Amino acid sequence: MRIEIRARHIPLTEDLRTHCERRVQFALGHLSDRVKEVVLRLEDTNGPRGGVDKVSRLTLRLEHGRELTLESTDATLVAAVDRTLDRAAHAISKVVGRAQRRHGPSVRHAA
Length: 111
What we know:
The chain has helices at about 15-30, 75-105; strands at about 1-10, 35-45, 55-60, 65-75. By secondary structure, the protein is of the alpha+beta class. The protein has a single domain (about 1-105), classed as Ribosome hibernation promotion factor-like (Double Stranded RNA Binding Domain). It has a four-stranded mixed beta sheet, covered by helices on one side. β1, α1 and β2 form a beta-alpha-beta unit. α1 (about 15-30) packs parallel to α2. It is elongated. The termini are far apart.
């Protein structure tokens, strides 16, 4: 699973990058065989004026070319990232579950 982190209108400090990478691994590590690429975009839409304006936008490229995009906004980047990744793990599980129900199990055992 390839992880890319981008920041717009904010400094991407080493602490923030480390938090994001660890959080991605924690939230999606068990799905790493399904997730090929993670692109996390961080943005401060309001600049120095403050407020609930920190945006975490996550694009996931899954196996078989499927792509999911999720976004969360919060007062801090850490909270926005955490919320987005929590939602991502749930969304991927739903997509994988639907695909398995539609196509059946990939390995069948003889009885």
